[in-house]
Design a protein that fits this description.
By secondary structure, the protein is an alpha/beta fold. The protein has 20 helices and 27 strands. The chain has a 7-stranded mixed beta sheet with strand order 1-3-2-4-5-6-13, sandwiched between helices. Strands 7, 8, 9, 10, 11, 12 and 14 form a 7-stranded mixed beta sheet that branches. Helix 8 crosses helix 9 and helix 17 packs across helix 18. The chain starts with a helix and ends with a strand. The N terminus is likely disordered.
Length: 616
């Protein structure tokens, strides 16, 4: 009887939503196993399982209910809802419209939903409605696009960085064709959708200093037909390239290029759908930036349940990654197809060292996947960061008959010669964390510059909140050759441009916690107000130095996650750390290596494995 009453209530809520313009899909049925029969929850599920014991109602409100991007996001949400035994109702408008989205939020509150997972049309339009929802006790979680209201957590793509990548892909293709000037058209959704505006900004930034003319943006509201008309108009004006900022814009762009018969126009887009993939494979689009909306939906539901269960998520922002999809290319993180190993391939995993917890966790992910796929992965890394030792590891792998090498390069150039020799002998190369300047099958890494900038912004927010608007900032890096940490530092420094702080000369501790602590202690004697550690050892040393100084007013921000770092954060000696996903790098690295060994062309795909801001 209770289930029948719940079903009747759900139907009533759905009917109300449809009357007011918000479409809805059937909420997931409870999939909770009987007590004592369920498998032990994974670490990501452990904190959410308890909340599923009651009747939990969650509303999922995206920009519309039609684009395949949102349909896929809902699929991910319903999957997680089924696993956790909660009800998620997809109650989104049929078209992108602020008034309808506000109405959906109000309907969710009136319908007694305890949490709202939302992809906001823009940062401000629905803010008032979300504030009212939050004030009534509703938990807010963002997916894809946040509004300017505090939320439990956000799961989205770094849209500006991905837009810049789209621009760089277009420039590479144009230059390869000998086209170094010409007009570029941009088809966006509207001027208020934060995610696509950021994509456009990133795209435009890629063309700075180049000889192309970026035309005035035209808006098609994400509608494929309207976008095609806009793109056709650009074509009549003689453009050499067109960028579509979302699924509808991209589809319209590809269709316009197809209709024109001009295969020389470079079309680059965003999002993944069957229509877009057909246009890419038929040669009418060069590539698209594929997000992971299913991951956004899954993680959004997990976060909502965790928040309803009383867990404090601290407003963390998780980058759910993006891949460049070309003809024959793959989106590694969103490719759930099984990898079949025809034999027990021998794969070498060579990281910067074998001691940092970051690399240990990466190896754990690699070994887990190796066991699942029936292949052999040998962790053969040096004990310390040393170019000569890493080169020796590569040479040993080749001499030992390993058919693939998964490698995190100390720097972009030091081991390039060794990797070129390995590749020339038929060894497949896959990068994790940090690539070298040698072509590889695929790369799985963090957008380190963007993450470094986030670290700087977190420090600035904390300093300004304490009334500190000037002062010296110290930076503890690994060395001047490690590409990943150099990019983190560059991003960190960029956050301080135009601010009143003095960024001191970087000091290098080779990733060693003790050396880094000595450097940080020296900074403290010089009166710094903040210190940034660029990797695990640097961060641990920074936190230990602040702890030893007894000066809790110094803001310490770092990179990577370890037990030592989390203890320093929880004890108040570090503000936060940028947590990567090394286990994902290891898992996806092995999958890619096996695919390459089985003859699949991965097209050199680059996958951003994301980063989160971890605070107390």
């Amino acid at each position: 009887m209770k289930k029948k009453l719940l079903a009747m209530f759900s139907c009533a809520a759905l009917l109300a939503a449809s009357i007011t313009g918000c479409s809805s899909s059937k909420p997931a049925e409870s999939a909770a196993a009987p007590a004592g029969s369920e498998a032990a929850p994974t670490e990501s599920e452990a904190k959410t399982t308890a909340a599923a014991s009651g009747d939990v109602k969650i509303a999922l409100i995206t920009m519309d209910s039609i684009d395949q991007h949102w349909v896929t996001l809902n699929d991910g949400a319903q999957k997680a809802a089924g696993e956790l035994g909660v009800s998620v109702t997809f109650m989104s408008p049929n078209t992108k419209d602020d008034a309808q989205q506000i109405e959906c939020v109000n309907n969710a509150v009136a319908g007694g939903y305890q949490a709202i997972i939302v992809a906001a049309n823009g940062p401000d339009a629905i803010s008032s409605a979300l504030k009212e929802a939050a004030s009534s006790g509703v938990k807010i979680v963002y997916v894809d696009s946040p509004a300017n209201v505090d939320a439990e957590a956000t799961f989205s793509t770094d849209n500006e960085a991905a837009g810049k990548t789209a621009g760089e892909e277009m420039i590479k293709a144009l230059e390869a064709a000998g086209v170094t000037s010409g007009k570029i058209g941009i088809v966006n959704v509207n001027a208020a959708t934060d995610s696509t505006v950021k994509r456009e900004n990133g795209f435009r930034s890629a063309f700075e200093g180049k000889g192309y003319e970026l035309m005035e943006t035209q808006y098609g509201e994400g509608d494929a037909a309207k976008s095609q008309t806009i793109a056709e108009n650009y074509i009549t004006q003689g453009v050499v390239g067109i960028f579509g900022c979302n699924e509808g814009s991209t589809t319209g762009t590809g269709n316009a290029i197809k209709a024109s018969g001009n295969a020389n126009i470079i079309g680059v887009g965003f999002d993944k759908s069957d229509a877009i993939m057909n246009l890419i494979n038929d040669g009418y689009l060069l590539c698209t930036m594929a997000q992971n909306p299913d991951v956004m939906g899954e993680e959004g539901v997990k976060a909502a349940v965790a928040a309803l269960n009383g867990e404090t998520l601290g407003g963390k922002v998780t980058d759910t990654g993006v891949s460049v999809i070309t003809a024959g290319g793959t989106a590694a993180a969103s490719d759930n197809s099984a990898v079949k190993a025809s034999q027990e391939w021998k794969i070498a995993l060579i990281t910067m060292d074998s001691i940092d917890q970051h690399w240990v966790t990466l190896n754990d992910g690699a070994q887990k996947t190796a066991e699942e796929l029936g292949v052999s992965v040998t962790f053969m890394s040096p004990n310390t960061k040393d170019d000569a030792q890493q080169i020796e590891c590569v040479n040993n792998a080749v001499a030992g008959g390993y058919q693939a090498i998964i490698v995190a390069a100390n720097g972009p150039d030091a081991i390039s010669s060794a990797l070129k020799e390995a590749a020339s002998s038929g060894v497949k190369i896959v990068y994790v964390d940090s690539p070298a300047n040698v072509d590889a099958e695929a790369t799985f890494s963090t957008d380190n510059e963007a993450a470094g900038k986030t670290a700087g912004e977190e420090m600035i927010k904390a300093l300004e909140a304490a009334g500190v608007t000037s002062g010296k900032i110290g930076i503890v890096n690994v060395n001047a050759a490690t590409d990943s940490t150099v990019k983190r530092e560059n991003g960190f420094r960029s956050a301080f441009e135009g601010k009143g702080y003095e960024l001191m000369e970087t000091q290098y501790g080779e990733g060693d916690a003790a050396k880094s602590q000595t450097i940080a202690e020296n900074y403290i004697t010089q009166g710094v107000v903040g210190i940034f550690g660029c990797n695990e050892g640097s961060t641990t040393g920074t936190g230990n130095a602040i702890k030893a100084s007894g000066n809790s007013g110094i803001v310490g921000v770092g990179f990577d996650k370890s037990d030592a770092i989390m203890n320093l954060i929880n004890d108040g000696y570090l503000l936060c750390t940028m947590a990567q996903n090394p286990d994902v790098m290891g898992e996806e690295g092995v999958k890619a290596a096996v695919k390459a060994l089985e003859g699949e062309s991965l097209g050199g795909a680059v996958q951003d494995t994301g980063v989160s801001v971890l605070t107390k």
